[in-house]
Amino acid sequence: EVQLVESGGGLVKPGGSLRLSCAASGFTFTNAWMNWVRQAPGKGLEWVGRIISKTDGGTTDYAAPVKGRFTVSRDDSTNTLYLQMNSLKTEDTAVYYCTTDRPAWGYAGDYWGQGTLVTVSS
Amino acid sequence: EIVLTQSPGTLSLSPGERATLSCRASQSFSSSYLAWYQQKPGQAPRLLIYGASSRASGIPDRFSGSGSGTDFTLTISRLEPEDFAVYYCQQYGSSPRLYTFGQGTKLEIK
After folding, report:
1. DSSP string, B36-80
2. Is pLDDT at B93 greater than 90 in this prediction?
3. Which of B98, B103, B105, B106 to mutate to test the interface with A (most CBs of A within 10 A)?
């Protein structure tokens, strides 16, 4: 059974930093392309960033609002995806989901974690 | 950058009825890159449809997707009580905005 379990969310002040983790199991994480998607309270879904597998190059891409502040990384030895968030703003307040990416399915997100809430407030 | 506009914003129907949800893009793209998700309150989104018309694993056949170019549709043939939720369409594009979501359609019980 595929499982994605996010952790690391919490309350942080504007300008602060936070690192989210996503523990993956039930599939070959080494080969997986992974995304972070967020959802502000009462709002829709917003893509944050992606990392592809190391075998496919390991490159990352970011949405414009977070580029230069957020970093997606992965540790294939522990099947863990990370999101390092720096210079946080109040508008970064959201539930953050990690999702798998299925290139063969048109890059649809076939599995999602339960999400972790990040609140940026003074 | 492509903008996805979903309509209606809210759809009020009764169980057993047919639901038709629309997703319109600001410019044409390959239907291979259009997906639909369902999200219930307090839950993560769930993939329903990929490639505009292919059902994901375990999705009931009352859900179907269609469309091409700029106009895409999610149809639920006979609504079950568990189908009342928010639905999002999503497009895969090109850098820097790889993934774009529509704003969502809330399907509520009439």
Report:
1. EEEE-TTS--EEEEETTTEEPTT--TTEEEEEEEEEEEEEESS--
2. no
3. B98
Cβ contacts of A110 on chain B, cutoff 8 Å: 47, 50, 56-57
- Residues A26-84 pLDDT 10s: 999 999 999 999 999 999 999 999 999 999 999 999 999 999 999 999 999 999 999 99
Q: Is B35 an interface residue toward A (CB < 8 Å)?
A: yes
Q: How many CB atoms lie within 10 A of CB A1?
A: 6
Q: B-chain residues within 8 Å CB-CB of A107?
A: 33, 92, 98-99
pLDDT in tens, A7-18: 999 999 999 999
Q: Please classify residue A46 by burial: count the beta carbons closer than 10 Å to its beta carbon, then call 0-12 exposed, 13-18 middle and 19+ buried.
A: middle
Contacts of A59 in chain B (CB under 8 A): none
User: If you search the block for the tokens 């199991």, which residue do you land on?
Assistant: A25
User: Do the Cβ atoms of A61 and B50 come within 8 Å?
Assistant: no
Instruction: Tell me what pLDDT residue B1 has.
Output: 85
* Contact residues, chain B, for A115 at CB < 8 Å: 44
* Mean of pLDDT values over A109-119: 96
* CA-wise closest residue to B101 among B10, B12, B1: B1
Q: What are the start-end ranges of the H helices in A16-55? A: none
- Cβ–Cβ contact B106 with A under 8 A: no
Residue range B35-64: mean pLDDT, rounded: 97
